[in-house]
Design brief:
Radius of gyration: 15 Å
Structural class: alpha+beta
Shape: globular
Strand order of the largest sheet: 1-8-3-6-9
Oligomer: single chain
Helix content: 25-40%
Length: 158
């Protein structure tokens, strides 16, 4: 899927979103995306692999897939994860994730269990049924999630 230039020229554009309660061993990839894709883990365990590292992750953590980076992720066999995800592009998308403490060298978010982020992701998923206001609501929830992540990241820095 080639992204249209107007999607890249707005501040933040939501490409995809959702939630999933994964089956044991459920995996995705290897794959490459054209946009930023953040996963927030509600519960359970799994791992995320980039071309550089493999990360074992759990509840309250998240991982960011950068555009054009090869990645793979898989739910644990014994305690599979449940997560929500948000895929975005835009002029400031990378800067917002940078403010969350995320980079290609550090794609893992360690903000801890957060019901606000979970609630926003669940509300985004339920917005699929909306028509006229869906894009505005999705963009609003994306900003709320990113602002919460930035707040929590700034509290962890000295």
């Amino acid at each position: 899927m080639k992204l249209h230039s107007e999607m890249r020229s707005v501040d933040l554009y939501v490409h995809e979103y959702g939630v999933e309660n994964c089956a044991p061993g459920h995996y995705f990839g290897p794959a490459v995306r054209e946009y930023f894709l953040f996963h927030y883990i509600f519960s359970g365990l799994g791992f995320f692999r980039t071309s550089e590292n493999t990360y074992v992750l759990q509840e309250g953590q998240g991982f960011l897939i950068f555009p054009d980076d090869l990645n793979y992720y898989q739910a644990d066999e014994g305690s599979p994860w449940s997560y929500g995800w948000l895929g975005v592009t835009g002029i400031n998308a990378e800067e917002y994730f940078h403010q969350c403490g995320l980079s290609r060298k550090n794609p893992i978010w360690n903000g801890g269990k957060d019901e606000f982020i979970e609630d926003c992701l669940l509300k985004m998923d339920s917005a699929r049924r909306l028509d006229v206001t869906r894009h505005l609501k999705l963009t609003g929830y994306a900003y709320l999630i990113l602002s919460r992540m930035i707040e929590k990241s700034s509290r962890q820095q000295p």
